[in-house]
Amino acid sequence: MKPVVPVATYRVQLTREFGFRECTAIVPYLTALGVSTLYCSPVLQAVPGSEHGYDTIDPTRLSPDLGGDAGWAALCDAVRRNGMTILLDIVPNHMAAVSANPWWRDVLEYGRASPFAAVFDVDWDPPWRWLKNRVMLPVLPSPLGQALNGGQLELHLGGSGLVLTHAGMELPLGLRSYRHVLRPLLCCDHGPLPEGFTGLVAELDALPALGAASSRSVGLYERLQRTKRMLLEFIGPRSGVEAGHRRLPAMVEGAVARITPSTLRLILAEQHYVLGYWKTARNHVNYRRFFDINGLVGVRVEDTEVFNLTHGFLRTLTESGVVCGLRVDHVDGLREPLRYLRKLRATNESFPGAAGVRPPFIAVEKILSGDETLPQRWPVEGTTGYDFLNEAAGLFVDPGGLQAMWRHYRRLTGARSTRAELTYENKRAVLGHLFHADLSLLAHMVAPVSRWLHPAAPVPPGAIVAALEEVTAALPVYRTYYSGSGALTAQDSAYLGMALQRAARRAGIDRNALEVVQRTLTLDLPSAPAHVRRAARHALLRWQQLSGAAMAKGFEDTTLYQDSTLLALNAVGGREKLSTTSLEHFHDWNRRRATDWPHTMNSTATHDAKRGEDVRARVSVLSEVPGVWAAAVERWFAVAGRHPASAPLMGQIDAATHLFLLQTMVGAWPGEGDRDEYAERIAHYMEKVAREAKTRSSWLEPDEAYERALAQLTQFALTGDGASAFTDCFGPVIASVAFHGLVNSVAQVLLKVMCPGLPDFYQGTELLDLSLVDPDNRRPVDYEARRSLLDDLEAKPADRSSRVAGLVSGWPDQLAKLYVTSIALGVRRRYRQVFERGDYIPLRAASRHTVCAFSRSLRGTHVVVVVPVGSRSIAGDRRLPLGTGVWGDDSIAMPADSPRLFTDALTGGRVHARGGIIRLADALAEFPVALLLSERTR
User: What is the mean pLDDT of the chain?
Assistant: First the structure.
């Protein structure tokens, strides 16, 4: 049996405000739109109030914030009644490192004795001896000494025992350290103490100290649990049955209040964690994180018991009969993705549903770089669609215009590095600043290799750290996929070879250190002892988890915020080399997908996208008019440089960030929307841009003066004294990109639905998506308005020609996007076999213009797509590419077996194929894109 493949997925971001109940209400609308599968953000219990759900605290229950079991049951019932299915987003890589996570809290309280210690990816034996058997928690806003002396850390007696609190954070105390609070009570004249209390305090003294051999002995956890239960009978909130007990909680609270900073320091020294200042202690973090986020701790799902513990509840959720599959978050963070995916497929080999018992549909959040392809061995249907997003985005960028914009960018900013060179340096920077602890832990793991290769003088750890940094920065992909046994694949060896060669060219690198790293990562240790080869395998597996994080932070979250040549190409999964997508490449790429990954996802917007899909579609138009754009920028720079309110700001803000701001404002322009609200959104967004770029400000070291100047410039241009001048400079550009951007938008929708793969829609994007990066793209969606607009479209007369005439006359009306989405999804649903199993046949256009045309064909059924590329260049400013006046006798050649008569699903018009060709003037007579169905498919 094969998985149930969705016709189209629709992603919703579930929150406390938009939970299961609210989601249930939109199910009929999604069905009417043509969606087959509701694609939910994580539904398991996350940190209370979570806005995204990726900070899980309990994978064994549904989130109460979202509506709990009852809300989930109602949602599943609505989905079932509407003939839909659900795709679940799961988060195997990490959990929230907060005390609200009961498993993490247990580890903090009991250390390695906790049964949950095996769940989390903690290095209990790091190179820093003072951290052995402890976990670094970089949570303090100031150094520990200041926090202690300033009274910022306080002890309290709570329902679960003694806890340490600070600014809303609560941490449990290890049981042995209770003696510092309780022992003084034995020496004071408080009258007789309850029988057994003195013995319990003595038992605390007898507990193993940190690092003692017995601290991990069998039965210790049970002993600790038993002792604590007995202790809480004396000092807990329910104590006091006997007269001698009633005074103890108050006595303990008094003792807690008398704790001095020096005693508190003694108490902290006995914890299974170390509190550190977040800015400096991050250099000693000894647990794997999600990227560099200290509040998200890696989970060891490679361990079978941990896998079963964290994934058991998923099976319960699938028993509803409506869950058709799983979306795996951050697959590159896993130690062994292939083994994990095989285990996931095997343990969920049958999902009950209306179509019978089927294996799950599985999509992975895998970011592919350049020409990288998804490993064929992976038992999945494909990716979550960033690859399609970038190929489609590049298609609508004019290559000559891009080069002109690059020259203009270099002239204004003085930039000399290519994007690839910039990314290399940014990866090195983030590795040194954000992942220094990870590199140090890796160097420690590599030490056996170093000692074996250079027994007389092992390479210093610092040199190995530097070599690892160079090689990791030079890796051209997110990661390689060695699985713990056997040899590296040819592709992985090639990527590693590229990285090692590039690192070898760096001046000043320690050659012995590079040799150690090279021999480790390539497993080139044929004569080494078993323990050395084992150390190398473990180091390689851990390095693979780190390299993906370095690419994400160095490229996605740094380069893409620095390089403002053309923001349409600044997307997750974008190319390191600034380039476009040629028509030939796009067709070849789609043919391979039709063969290799026919059910992968096609996305144009996601919750993690850098900007909305229609912002991207608009900004692409600038590449068609680089001279017009450059002239507008120059005029604005001159105006802003003279105005007394903005001239001082111009000297503070670098040109690259200024260009980033201008392209953003032009691309996301709200039309007649609230300008004050828009200015506020842009100002918040640009603060994030500045910090992610890390050139003048950063999250670690915010430059408030710079950020304030950036906000002031934004306000000046949008609502202040410069608003009129801004409109004079950019008004025509804004109008042009809005007009032709909508052509790109409807073309992009049509490609997404009709190309090999399955279309995925992010919430609300059936209308114009002018959002920015999160949290801006997670604002509430007005589904009532969308339902009303869709009802109006469906209620109008069946004469589609009159419908599109109204859309064309009102261009650029976002209703055109909803219309194309609805019609295209209807075709996709009705002829799903054509798209799931049919051929992808590129159609050649005889035209001086670029036209993307192809046929999806299966057993005599043909669906033909015709999309113009570069409507501004084709038709002129604010003219649609329609009819003979634009296309003349240009045509597309049809396959020999194609029918001679088609019906356009969008306009209802008839289109003839005469002499094996279709005239573009006929196909694009009434609407700027065409969706042609052969008579057999009508």
Answer: 94
Domain ranges of the chain: 9-97+294-384, 102-286, 416-555, 838-938
β-pairing, 37-40 with 9-12?
A: parallel
Beta-strand ranges (E) seen in 310-381 are 323-328, 361-364
Give 88's strand partners: 40, 326
- The two structure tokens encoding residue 210: 């940190």
Question: 9-97+294-384: which CATH topology?
Answer: TIM Barrel (3.20.20)
Nearest to 252 by CA among 233, 272, 271, 226: 233
Number of other CB atoms surrounding residue 406 within 10 Å: 18
pLDDT tens digits along 539-597: 999 999 999 999 999 999 999 999 999 999 999 999 989 999 999 999 999 999 999 99
Inter-helix orientation angle 511-521/490-504, to 10°: 170
Q: Which amino acid type is present at position 433?
A: H
Residue 236 to residue 227: CA distance in whole angstroms: 13
CB count in 10 Å sphere of residue 227: 18
Question: Residue 236: which pLDDT band, with cuts at 50, 70 and 90?
Answer: confident
Point out which residues pair with 863 in neighbouring strands: 856, 933
Looking at the predicted structure, is the pLDDT value of residue 356 above 80? Answer: no
Sheet-wide strand order for 917-919: 845-846, 891-893, 917-919
Q: Residue 54 is which amino acid?
A: Y
* Strand 154-158 with 135-140, pairing: unpaired
- CA–CA separation, 913 vs 898, rounded Å? 9
Report the Cα 587 to chain-centroid distance in Å: 28
Separation between Cα atoms, residue 300 and residue 338, nearest integer Å: 14
State the CATH architecture for 838-938.
Answer: Sandwich (2.60)
State how far the Cα of 903 lies from the Cα of 899, in Å rounded to an integer: 11
The Cα angle at residue 16 between residues 327 and 777, in degrees rounded to 5: 60
Do domains 9-97+294-384 and 838-938 share one topology? The answer is no
Put residue 188 in one of left, alpha, beta given phi > 0 → left and psi -120 to 50 → alpha: beta
Q: What is the 3-state secondary structure (H, E, C) of 825-866?
A: HHHHHHCHHHHHHCEEEEECEECCCEEEEEEEEECCEEEEEE
Q: What is the largest CA-CA distance in the chain?
A: 109
Q: The whole model's pTM is what? A: 0.95
Q: In the structure, how many helices (H) and strands (E) does the chain have?
A: 37, 27
pLDDT tens digits, residue range 298-316? 999 999 999 999 999 998 8
C-alpha radius of gyration, the chain, whole number: 31
Q: Which two tokens stand for residue 284?
A: 């000693």
If DSSP codes are grouped into helix, strand and coil, which group holds residue 919?
strand
pLDDT at position 346: 87
759, 828 Cβ separation under 8 angstroms = yes
**Residues present in the chain in total:** 938
| HSE (side-chain half, CA atoms, 13 Å) at 81 | 12
Q: In what order do the strands lie in the sheet with 861-869?
A: 839-843, 850-858, 861-869, 930-934, 901-904, 910-912
Q: What is the residue-wise DSSP string for 126-154? A: -S-GGGTT-EEEEEESS-HHHHHHTT-SE
Handedness of CA 565, 571, 575, 579 (dihedral sign): negative
d(C-alpha 412, C-alpha 420), whole Å: 20
Produce one character per residue of 896-927: b if its CB has 16 or more CB atoms within 10 Å, e if not.
eebbeebbbbbbebebebeeebbbbbbbbbbb
Burial label, 195 (beta-carbon count in 10 A; 0-12, 13-18, 19+): exposed
140 CB contacts (<8 Å, ≥6 apart)?
147, 152, 166, 275, 276, 277, 278, 281
Q: Which residue has the tokens 């005239």?
A: 919
> Around Cβ 725, how many Cβ atoms within 10 Å?
19
The token pair at 793 is: 């479209």
What pLDDT was estimated at residue 674? 85
SS3 440: helix
Answer left, alpha or beta for residue 168, where phi above 0 means left and psi between -120 and 50 means alpha: left
